[in-house]
Write a structure and sequence with these properties.
The chain has helices at residues 3-7, 38-49, 58-64, 114-121, 141-150, 162-170, and strands at 12-20, 24-27, 53-57, 79-83, 104-109, 126-130, 155-158, 176-182, 189-191, 209-215, 218-224. It is an alpha/beta fold. Strand 10 (209-215) and strand 11 form a beta hairpin. It has six helices and eleven strands. It has one domain (3-224): Dihydrofolate Reductase, subunit A. The chain starts with a helix and ends with a strand.
Length: 225
Amino acid sequence: MRKTRLTKKLPFVTVKYAQSLDGRIATSTGDSQWISSPASLKFAHRLRRDHDAVMVGIGTVLKDDPGLTVRLASGSDPLRVIIDSRLRIPLAASVLSTKAATGTLIIAGEGANQKRARRIERTGATVLFAPREGKTARVSLVDALSALTDRGIRSVLVEGGAALITSLLSARLVDRMVVITAPKIIGRGIEAICDLGIMRLKDAMTFSSVRIRRLGPDVIFDCLI
Ligand SMILES: NC(=O)c1ccc[n+]([C@@H]2O[C@H](COP(=O)([O-])OP(=O)(O)OC[C@H]3O[C@@H](n4cnc5c(N)ncnc54)[C@H](OP(=O)(O)O)[C@@H]3O)[C@@H](O)[C@H]2O)c1
């Protein structure tokens, strides 16, 4: 059991991303749509439907402007959560559109601009302030997850990007990893996971169970930590 689970009640966290055979989630220009096949995209929408909330970092919103809705499966949309310590989200972002905003929660760092928060809330979205991570400007992810528990959220699907996934893994806040690997080579690009400070192979992260399946041309690793 994760240490944080012992002290704080946190939702079950699934990290999901699509990567190339060489472990990239985007090209060097940040282009990531779409790495995986149409069959895997449908699978990703079913995963979304099966979680209470879907979460991305602000970097992904700025680059991809995702809708984070369930479109390729039947069922209702999860709560959309954006980790955005400085409230950089554009008011024109898809997750703040008329249809989506009421189901969107932006988690900012304490001390972020209140005026900006009010402007964002006028779209219908909710802005929540969470403590910052140590001395950084970034949102404390334990506190963000704990705030989601307080709102009745029991499961969160994290859909990227690299910085958010890396922080969650570093903080040992991930319960399940679903990695869709497509038979494509990108070369230099954005790595799915950045530095975790692991120097020796014996310290590599491993899993308590691993399920492997094929979906069209892609291979899906579904791993429990
Ligand atoms: N292939 C896939 O499945 C997939 C999925 C999603 C995204 N992507 C790609 O990934 C790229 C974006 O990744 P990214 O790494 O730039 O952005 P990201 O992980 O989406 O967002 C990172 C940003 O979140 C904010 N943040 C706040 N608190 C944080 C914390 N504790 N830890 C980490 N981040 C925190 C930081 O900005 P502030 O300090 O300003 O808040 C940080 O720069 C895009 O190219 C996108 O296309 C690929």
